[in-house]
Amino acid sequence: MKLLVFLSGEHPTLPRSEVLAAFEALGLSFKIAEQSEQVLVLEGDFPAGAIAQAAKRVAMAHFFGELYFSCKADAGEVLSNARSVDYAFEGSFAVRVHRVRHHAEHLSTEQLEREIGAVIASRGKKVNLSAPANVIAGIITDRFYLARVLERVDRGAYEERRPHMRPYFRPGVLLPRLARAVVNLTRVREGERFADPFCGTGGILIEAGLVGAEVYGFDLEEEFLRGAEVNLRHYGVELYHLAKGDARALWERYPEHFHAIACDPPYGISASTKGLSLERLYQESLSSIYRMLIPRRYACVIGPSNLDIEGYASSVGFSIEEVHFERVHRSLVRKIVVLRK
Questions:
Q1: Which helix (H) or strand (E) holds 53?
Q2: Distances (CA, A) of 99 to 111, 140, 223
């Protein structure tokens, strides 16, 4: 089947990469059939339950759907293609058309909803605008896509885990959707060992634990470790291990022990590096992370954009898989670097 993923668009590159990494972590075989702004179409034979697993796992997407067709963003072509589809679903339906940014503003979303809906209704399907059993979604980008929604991403769940809503809170930590994306970029699988050598209050650990990983968190601040434990328990993460430890020396205790590692070391204005230069902290920590990681597996390291994380990582043996940039505020752009041993 051809599976349409409607990406969130909250970052220019992370949503696509997160979905692809999550599908890889789930062991799903696929190829990229099409892609456009906020749209990714994957082709494969997806087993029962796989799409629901993917929707539960990813953060930076809105929904997954069975693609009916894609065509030029032209009303005539859209309706011509809509008439050629065999709408085999059971139950009522409603059509919802979404426009990505300012694409094809000559097309009316309301008119397309009415006209596509009329085509489907002419096949004997019952319209229910308030509580449809099936949502037929149109997406207008530089092309037009029509799909039946199969699974939605519960984005509200990430909002409920925002840092200030946790039992133990400290400012300056990653938001849950970004933390989940970072976890997915490591390709960690359910039951595997995941480590955060700079765990702080446990934001990344929470997301790794919720995808089913056995999580290990380390920090030099015992107060943070106590807070991380409170937070992990609050969100129902049971397979966790927390210990005081210096990220630069953890490899001595855990050589080639972890299937995945992700971290957001201290680098902001208010962060403390315990007297170390930022360069030395990253260099020595990346060397330790490399030794802790199982061969051919992934790590994800976050830092300021002006720091040569890629150079430090390459020097200890990592290959650089991806680099993503995110503006935090006027004076800070951070980068998210995906590494493979």
A1: helix 50-57
A2: 13, 5, 47
CATH classification for the domain delimited by 2-152, as one of 3.40.309.10, 3.30.2130.30, 3.40.50.80, 3.40.190.290:
3.30.2130.30
Coil, helix or strand at residue 79: helix
pLDDT at 270 (0 to 100): 47
Say if residues 131 and 94 touch (Cβ distance below 8 Å): no
Domain ranges for the chain, please list them. Answer: 2-152, 158-340
The span from the CA of 165 to the CA of 148, in Å, is: 35
Q: Which residue has the tokens 């067709």?
A: 69
CATH superfamily of 158-340: Vaccinia Virus protein VP39 (3.40.50.150)
pTM assigned to the model: 0.95
Q: How far apart are CA 28 and CA 227, in angstroms?
A: 36
**Nearest one of 237, 262, 55 to 179, comparing CA atoms:** 262
The predicted pLDDT at position 268 comes to 56
Contact 157, 224 (CB under 8 A): no
C-alpha–C-alpha distance, residues 41 and 64, integer Å: 10
Give the Å distances, CA to CA, from 309 to 13, 14, 186, 204, 271.
19, 18, 17, 19, 18
| Residues of the chain falling short of pLDDT 50 | 269-270
The CB density around residue 306, as the number of other CB atoms within 10 Å, is 9
User: What torsion do the CA atoms of 255, 57, 25, 334 make, to the nearest 10 degrees?
Assistant: -60
To 10 degrees, the CA torsion angle through 41, 45, 49, 55? -20
Contact yes or no for 58/180 (Cβ under 8 A): yes
Give the pLDDT confidence of 161-173 residue by residue, as tens digits.
999 999 999 988 9
